[in-house]
Specification:
Layout (H helix, E strand, L loop, with lengths): L14 H32 L4 H22 L6 H8 L12
């Protein structure tokens, strides 16, 4: 059976499950934001005392947070697409000489 003729599976999601997932999603974002804020503070305090150095030091944690937020918003409607979209490209094992 290929994916075009495979029967669709449905999962019942209750309102309580949705509320729990929303709370969990916000908790994960809050922990990420707290970690990024701590990293920014440490980087800026460790940087030289001029604004350009401090902005450059603050940029990597901000870039990480923005990247995670953008990746988390990529729509994946099928599990197969979600897995294939993030897997590394297939590489064949190196051939042995002679």
């Amino acid at each position: 059976m290929n994916s075009a003729t495979a029967p669709a599976t449905t999962v019942e999601v209750t309102e309580g499950d949705r509320r729990h997932l929303r709370r969990l999603r916000w908790a994960v974002r809050a922990v990420l934001a707290l970690g990024v804020a701590a990293s920014i503070a440490a980087n800026v305090l460790h940087a030289r005392p001029n604004p350009i150095s401090q902005v450059i030091a603050a940029w990597p944690p901000l870039a990480l947070m923005l990247t995670v937020e953008l990746i988390s918003r990529v729509p994946t409607h099928q599990r197969v697409l979600a897995c294939c979209g993030w897997s590394p490209p297939h590489r064949s094992p190196p051939s042995r000489p002679g």
